[in-house]
Amino acid sequence: MGATHRLPARSDREGELVGSEDGSGLRIGVVTARFNEEVTKRLLAGAYEALDRLQVAAANRTVAWVPGAYELPLAAKALAASGRVDAVVCLGCVVRGETSHYDFVAGECARGLQQVQLETGLPIVFGVLTTENFEQALERAGGSYGNKGDEAVVTAVEMANLLAEV
Ligand code: INI
Predict the structure, then answer these.
(1) Distance from the alpha carbon of residue 55 to the mean position of ligand 1, in angstroms
(2) Which domain holds residue 33?
(3) Does residue 147 form part of some domain?
(4) The dihedral of CA 101, 40, 110, 11: what is its sign?
(5) Measured from the CA of 33, which atom of ligand 1 is nearest?
(6) Quick one: which of 7, 42, 43, 135 has the most CB atoms within 10 Å?
(7) Do strands 141-143 and 146-147 pair parallel, antiparallel, or not at all (unpaired)?
């Protein structure tokens, strides 16, 4: 593993609220963008590993695909509004090209997901890689820098459990 960001250590001070990593009672949606599918399939594989590890029941998973990262906010909103999920994990990969397209796609995706999260009150997790090149993306999709899909599910479970406590 390279030296990189990891989810920070959890607080164990008495009286502080920290959502648990127990996913056994939770319903989790996962939306994956097909664009840069070689990477996003790996993110989804990481997400499945975390869903298994955190004991999110198979019947409580809703998995959907969209064409690209730009479409993630709308699908996340539909899932969140359906009442079928307690959190939505959004997976995608935006690689910087030679035009400004990257900035629009990545920026609008991030902005849209945050908007859905605040509007619906459900955790909408930003599991979207935004990298300079394909290699950097692969490193973060099960390579030397871990798997962002796995981390995104851990975040979804922690946040859903936290919101249930406050
Ligand atoms: N979508 C991505 O998920 N990643 C990209 O890198 C990307 N680039 O570079 O263009 C991308 N574009 C497609 C976009 O998400 C929409 O699907 C498309 O514009 C239709 O709305």
Answers:
(1) 32
(2) 28-165
(3) yes
(4) negative
(5) 3
(6) 43
(7) antiparallel
